Amino acid sequence: MDKELDAARDGQLVLRGQRGDRQALGELVDLYHGAIYRLAFRLLGSSEDAADVTQSTFLSAFESLHTFRPEHRFFSWIYRIALNEALDFRRRRRGGECLDESLPDQGPGPELVARHGQLQAQIQAAMTGLSDEQRAVVVLRHYSECSYSEIGEILALPEKTVKSRLFEARRTLRNLLEQESDHA
Fold first, then answer.
1. What residue numbers bound the domain in which 122 lies?
2. Which listed residue, 47, 73, 93, 160, has the most CB atoms within 10 A of its CB?
3. For residue 26, what is the enclosing H or E element?
């Protein structure tokens, strides 16, 4: 579906939700639950924590739905809320992070599946070494597949800054992965 059609559909659902239509709110949850969960999982590394943050994201969003400005895209607005919720959750839990080693893997053979799962676990572990700002741009770009302009909109940053942060994040991630392979 086209982004303009998505934005129009979301705008109508938000308007209905602001008027108290619970079905419209349910539709927004159905539309964005998976994306918000994946964002939270990649930022936090735990399926349980991601589920908690997904729930708190929708609660926060619906509590402040009256502040949503229709000239903005709902996608960007709720992603920003999710990002803030995940980063706040991470700050509260700092030091006690637990990585979920059971990332879903699909592949033709058990050896390839095992290697892929191991690589995903290494990447997720290395992601914890990134700053919150770096982790946010990596997750939004590579896991949520947002464009640079969408990331800029979500994070309220110029596109040039997004590209710079992503470059630094990739370099840091590469160094962390290289250090891990040197110790293995």
1. 107-184
2. 73
3. helix 22-44
Helices (H), 93-158: 110-127, 132-138, 148-155
Q: Are residues 35 and 84 in the same domain?
A: yes
Q: Are residues 93 and 136 in the same domain?
A: no
- pTM tops 0.85: no
The token pair at 107 is 């592949």
Query: How many CB atoms neighbour CB 15 within 10 A?
Result: 14
135 conformational bin, left if phi > 0, alpha if psi -120 to 50, beta if neither = alpha
Residues 80 and 142 in one domain: no
Per residue in 94-109, pLDDT (tens digit) is 654 444 444 444 444 5
Give the span between the Cα atoms of 70 and 55, in whole angstroms.
23
Distances from the Cα of 13 to the Cα of 24, 162, 165, angstroms: 5, 30, 34
Question: ∠64-67-85 over CA atoms, to 5°?
Answer: 45
Residue type, 168: E
- Tokens linked to 111: 């050896």
Q: Which of 99, 123, 154 is the last residue of a domain?
A: 99
